[in-house]
Write a structure and sequence with these properties.
Layout (H helix, E strand, L loop, with lengths): L19 E9 L2 H12 L4 E8 L6 E9 L2 H13 L3 E4 L1
Antiparallel strand pairs: 1-3, 1-4, 2-3
Length: 92
Amino acid sequence: MEKIPMQKTDGCKPKIDYPCLWQYKVIATDFLQVREVVADHMGDAPYSLTESNTSSGGKYVSMSLELTVHSDYHRLRLYEVLSAHPAVKVVL
């Protein structure tokens, strides 16, 4: 059986035309805490944060955050802010 060489993905990133509408899926333990950190970070910029599901035991809540991002920095910075919050378990 012939081995197929793995392709390197170093430096390969998606082509995103900014500004664009972006959506994050956030799984956390507290909707209100996430709402607060998003409001603090976004300021007056428009966004939508909606609760989409709660786990059967009520321990976790998933939510969708939709906003317009204007650059890689803006998109990745918000990801970092959300990921660093203690109530947030996963950001997709």
